[in-house]
Automatic annotation (TrEMBL):
A Pfam family that the UniProt record links to this protein: bPH_11
Organism: Streptomyces peucetius
Sequence intervals crossing the membrane: 20-41
Positions of the PH domain: 55-176
Protein name stated in the entry: PH domain-containing protein
Lineage: superkingdom: Bacteria
Keyword tags: Membrane, Transmembrane, Transmembrane helix
Length: 188
C-alpha cells in the first residue's frame, strides 16, 4: 500500500452508529403516545357505561337452590343489545370477559363469574337460545358461541358463552328453548 492510502484510511472515521439522545426521545414519545391511546380507550369504555346507566342492577340467584337441569363451564364473552352483535353492553360488569359457570334450573339461568359480577336470568326473562359465530370482540367458527337472549330493564340482551366442551352447546340450546316455550305456554 502506498503511504497516501494508509494515511487516508487512518484519518477516515466511521459515522456514529447511534444517536442515543434522538433514540431515547423517540422511545419516550412512542410510550407517551401508547399511554394516551390507552387512556382514550378507557375513557370510551367509561362513557359507554355512563350511557347505559339506565340499565337496572342485575338480578342475583335465589337463595333456595333448586335442582340443576344443566351445568356448563367455559367462558363468558360479553353481552350486547339483542340483534346488534357489535353494540357491547358494559354497564354492571356485563362487558367484562371472564371464566363462567352456568347452571340452568327451573328458576332460571345462574351465571357465576370468578373475578367479575355474577348474575341471574329468571326463567320468565329468557327469550331465546341459539348457536352463533360472534359477539362483540369475539368471532369463532359458525356455531361456536352459545347466545342467550334475555330481557332486562325493558331491553333485550344477547349474552355469549363458549363451553369448554363445545359439543354440549347444542344440548343447551335445545333445553333452553324447550324451557322458554314451556314458560310462554303456561303464561298464556
Amino acid at each position: 500500500m502506498t503511504p497516501a492510502l494508509i494515511t487516508m484510511a487512518v484519518e477516515q472515521k466511521s459515522a456514529e452508529v447511534t444517536d442515543w439522545a434522538a433514540r431515547i426521545g423517540w422511545v419516550v414519545g412512542l410510550l407517551l403516545f401508547i399511554a394516551f391511546v390507552y387512556w382514550l380507550m378507557r375513557q370510551g369504555w367509561k362513557w359507554r357505561g355512563s350511557l347505559q346507566s339506565d340499565l337496572p342492577e342485575l338480578p342475583t340467584a335465589p337463595t333456595a337452590p333448586s335442582d340443576a337441569k344443566l351445568t356448563m363451564t367455559g367462558r363468558y364473552h360479553g353481552s350486547t343489545t339483542a340483534g346488534q352483535w357489535l353494540d357491547r353492553i358494559v354497564a354492571h360488569g356485563l362487558g367484562t370477559r371472564s371464566r363462567a359457570e352456568l347452571t340452568l334450573t327451573d328458576a332460571g339461568l345462574a351465571v357465576e363469574r370468578p373475578g367479575a359480577q355474577d348474575f341471574f336470568v329468571p326463567a320468565a326473562a329468557l327469550r331465546e337460545a341459539r348457536l352463533d359465530k360472534g359477539i362483540a370482540g369475539k368471532v369463532l367458527a359458525e356455531g361456536g358461541l352459545l347466545i342467550v337472549t334475555w330481557a332486562h330493564g325493558g331491553k333485550l340482551i344477547d349474552s355469549g358463552f363458549r363451553s369448554d366442551h363445545a359439543a354440549e352447546q347444542s344440548e343447551w340450546v335445545e333445553t333452553l328453548n324447550n324451557m322458554i316455550n314451556t314458560t310462554e305456554g303456561t303464561a298464556r
